[in-house]
TrEMBL record:
Protein name: TransglutaminaseTgpA domain-containing protein
InterPro entries on file: Bact_TGase-like (IPR052901), Papain-like_cys_pep_sf (IPR038765), TgpA-like_C (IPR025403), TgpA_N (IPR021878), Transglutaminase-like (IPR002931)
Record Gene3D superfamilies: 3.10.620.30
Residues in Transglutaminase-like domain copies: 490-559
Biased composition regions of type Pro residues, renumbered to the chain: 1-22
Low complexity composition bias: residue spans: 329-344
Keywords in alphabetical order: Membrane, Transmembrane, Transmembrane helix
Ranges annotated as biased composition (Polar residues): 590-599
Organism: Prauserella oleivorans
Length: 832
């Protein structure tokens, strides 16, 4: 008899321990730190356009705050959207706390703080518009740089860490270099390129090292890492940078000088210096707190002529005078004899004048009177007879040059006898738009009794220079009291400096049909031995009027009495006595006091929100469109990063990632990019924005139509309508067609389904759902079901069809071409 031992009861298996919370890996620290270092290294390129180093401290603080915020929230496993939003919020707190005084608890922005911040940024953009690099590191400039580099730090952190795509940061960092390279007058320091290249290479190396550690246990050929594989990105980036610099030097010209860092650039390429912007607003010069020597002139003697840099022929209402849109005129080479200037018949004395630039760096080469020839200038300078200017395509410091000029001036009698014909000058010199009727009426009233063109011009000139009319030279314009800036200056304020006077007189002359333009240059300066010294405080604007055979004749309506003005003989009454270089007028502040010059091109102009914006045509870009473009692009970038991140999670099968990227997220990212592009195009011209909309609409129309058809069919299927089976089958055929598979009309339902399953490689779940769909479609077509079975079929159809679509997305994702140009829209539809 055998006995069996009963089995011992086994202890229940221990409950599985909860998975440990993942610790913060080294890569979670090293990658964001590398991204921050790359951002700061790229920011050093701004040394080429900003003076000093104080701004770099703010950049470092902003970058560190952004980086630490991202590291902290990722350690808490926060959603990527929350990380990006928190980084932007921290950057806003920093800017509000550092550059405003109205924030709640110092750093929290409120309406007052945002208004104050907007004023700071407007001042920064004005300094950029009127200044010349390298600009002073003022508070507005530092604020703008902090915001810009802070946003770059956010984007680089998102791309390098959240989206795990550090190579994509290269484009963003390259843009940081592109801005100062385009603005600086010389090549950026060599070390900033080396520092940026090393930091970017380190960022790639960190990512490559992390990927190697993650895959080192895999047996896939080519993934086994050797010690040199980690340093491969460094070598690749270094080689690419060297090749790019060499190729750029030989082909395109890196930076602004077309030479490698450290190479000899010649005498013409000297850093530093000042220039003048081609606008009636001279703030770029007048804001220089100290007088900077610009030119030394030999051979002028006691002649107190004005030195002309360039002329402006286009008036823009409520903005001022500027150059016309488009390229520079063709011109003729300026080295040697020049075409005769208008009014120069060659009979007057030719006087050689030696002009020695000291701190002058610009596109323009200033000249006196009517230039006849130029000597000792380098190649690349051109002379335009129509505008009377000597220019080149890129800013440069010229060496000393000699101008042979005619300084002869016509007499009062000759000017009265000269009447310009309507076709003597291009139409641009008589065109004027949107002149306030009150200004036009004043011009007609002043010239009603003037029989000749000269008498009319002199009458308007006398209106500004006569002390009894109340016009005063001042660096501060009167408070605005009229929405039209020009009318406010002429009729109410009567206070301003040279650009306001020149702008007003030129507009009034054109309003009564007299050709006029604004000349920009310098007053006579001060004598130093046998030399005249011209400084930055001598920057000036005046009016030139066309008199046919006498050419362009100068009228300076600014009532200067500080010894720097110039009144020619033809404007001086016979009883006038004293120094012919002094003009009549009241005692006014000298030009050296003009450190607080108003920023508006015309006096009395309020802020854009008060004047130009209120009078802006409906098709003009609103003032906030620039910020709108930046905001839309930033949000679009975040949405794009989210799409990329979700796509990676789906591709790797991570839990909780779903089966497809939400269509609304993709659509939102595309829509925001389009909105940003439209805003940017609107800044150029409304027609450009309209063209962009038409192009984008044409590109997106097929996808939009296909989506509307898809949504209508899915609604029929989900709601169990009578047409649900037909809708499901047609949608299935269209899904196959969009993926490049055409189902012939002659195929049966089962044969078509077999082709879909095989060619799209459906998984088992997808094949089961496809069988269900085929069964319901066949029963619907060939054996109409009862009400009970019909309701059950509709429920099964809805569930199975959605499962089938998910399987198609997993096994055969739709390409971008299939999304934008769905083939199902272009094939002929057939019945069942």
């Amino acid at each position: 008899m055998t006995t069996t031992t009963p089995p011992r009861p086994q202890a229940p298996p221990p409950a599985p321990a909860p998975p440990p919370r993942p610790a913060m890996t080294a890569n979670a620290v090293v990658s964001p730190v590398a991204a921050a270092i790359a951002t700061i290294a790229a920011a050093t390129a701004l040394t080429g356009v900003i003076q000093g180093w104080g701004w770099l401290g703010y950049v470092v603080v902003a970058t560190v705050l952004v980086t630490c915020t991202g590291m902290a929230l990722r350690a808490l496993r926060a959603h990527p959207f929350a990380v990006g939003a928190a980084q932007l919020l921290v950057l806003l707190f920093l800017v509000v706390g550092a550059f405003t005084r109205s924030g709640f608890l110092v750093i929290v922005p409120g309406p007052a703080a945002l208004t104050e911040l907007n004023d700071v940024l407007v001042a920064a953009f004005e300094e950029i518009r009127t200044g010349l690099p390298p600009v002073e590191g003022t508070t507005p400039i530092v604020c703008l740089v902090t915001i810009a580099i802070g946003l770059v730090a956010v984007v680089v952190d998102i791309l390098a860490v959240t989206a795990a795509a550090p190579a994509a940061t290269g484009l963003i960092l390259l843009c940081v270099y592109a801005v100062p390279s385009a603005l600086a007058g010389e090549l950026l320091p060599w070390w900033t390129f080396a520092l940026g290249a090393a930091a970017f290479a380190g960022l790639l190396a960190v990512d490559g090292s992390h990927r190697h550690r993650s895959w080192r246990n895999r047996g896939t050929p080519g993934l086994g890492a050797s010690p040199g594989s980690v340093s491969a990105p460094v070598a690749v980036v270094a080689a690419a940078l060297a090749a790019g610099l060499v190729a750029g030097t030989a082909v395109t010209g890196i930076g602004t000088e077309g030479s490698l860092p450290g190479s000899s650039s010649g005498s013409d390429d000297v850093p530093g210096g000042l220039g003048i912007n081609p606008f009636t607003s001279l703030r770029g010069m007048l804001d220089e707190g100290t007088s900077v020597e610009l030119f030394r002139v030999h051979g002028l003697g006691q002649d107190r002529r004005l030195l002309r840099a360039f002329t402006l022929d286009t008036y823009r209402p409520n903005e001022g005078w500027g150059l016309p849109e488009g390229p520079m005129p063709a011109g003729v080479p300026a080295d040697g004899p020049l075409p005769a200037a208008p009014g120069d018949d060659g009979t007057g004395e030719s006087r050689p004048i030696r002009i020695e630039p000291v701190n002058w760096v610009d596109l323009w080469l200033p000249v006196f009177g009517a230039p006849r020839s130029l000597h000792s200038i380098s190649d690349g300078w051109y002379y335009d007879r129509t505008s009377g200017t000597v220019f080149r395509e890129r800013r440069q410091r010229p060496g000393p040059y000699v101008e042979v000029a005619s300084l002869e001036e016509p007499s009062r009698q000759e000017l009265r006898a000269s009447e310009p014909a309507a076709d003597d000058v291009p139409p641009v010199y008589t065109e004027v738009e949107a002149v306030d009727p009150r200004v036009r009426d004043l011009a007609e009233e002043l010239t009603a009794d003037a029989p000749t063109t000269f008498d009319k011009a002199q009458a308007i000139w006398s209106h500004f220079t006569s002390p009894g009319n109340g016009f005063i030279y001042d660096t501060q314009t009167a408070p605005a009291s009229d929405p039209d800036a020009l009318a406010d200056f002429v009729l109410n304020g009567k206070r301003g400096f040279c650009e306001q006077y020149a702008s007003a007189m030129a507009v009034m002359l054109r309003s009564i049909g007299i050709p006029a333009r604004v000349a920009v240059g310098f007053t006579t300066g001060y004598p130093s031995g046998d030399t005249r010294v011209i400084t930055s405080q001598d920057a000036h604007a005046w009016v030139e009027v066309y008199f046919g055979d006498e050419g362009w004749v100068g009228f300076d309506p600014t009532p200067l009495s500080d010894g720097r003005g110039y009144v020619p003989e033809y404007l001086r009454a016979p009883q006038d006595s004293g120094n012919p270089g002094e003009s009549p007028g009241e005692e006014v502040p000298t030009a050296s006091s003009s450190v607080n010059a108003p920023s508006s091109p015309l006096p009395g102009a309020q802020s854009p929100s008060d004047t130009a914006q209120n009078r802006r045509p409906f098709y003009a870009a609103p003032s906030w469109s620039g910020w709108g473009a930046l905001g839309a692009a930033l949000v679009a970038l975040l949405a794009t990063a989210a799409v990329v991140l979700l796509g990676r999670r789906i591709a790797t099968g991570r839990p909780g990632s779903g089966t497809t990227v939400p269509a609304w997220l993709v659509g939102a990212a595309l829509g925001l990019w389009v909105l940003s592009l439209v805003f940017v195009a609107w800044q150029l011209h409304w027609a450009v924005a309209l063209f962009v909309l038409i192009v984008v609409g044409g590109v997106m129309a097929p996808a939009a139509i296909r989506e509307v058809v898809r949504m209508r069919r899915l609604q029929d299927i989900t709601q169990g309508r009578a047409s649900a089976a037909d809708a499901a089958w047609q949608e299935l055929l269209d899904e196959a067609a969009d993926r490049g598979i055409e189902i012939p009309r002659s195929d049966t339902v089962r044969l078509a389904a077999q082709k879909v399953a095989q060619r799209h490689r459906l998984d088992e779940q997808g094949k089961n759902d496809l069988r269900t769909v085929v069964g319901v479609v066949e029963r619907s077509w060939y054996s109409p079901p009862s009400s009970d079975s019909g309701a059950r079929d509709q429920q099964e159809l809805a569930r199975a069809f959605h499962g089938l679509r998910d399987s198609l997305h997993r096994s055969a994702p739709l390409s971008w071409r299939g999304r934008l140009l769905p083939r199902s829209l272009f094939r002929r539809r057939s019945g069942r």
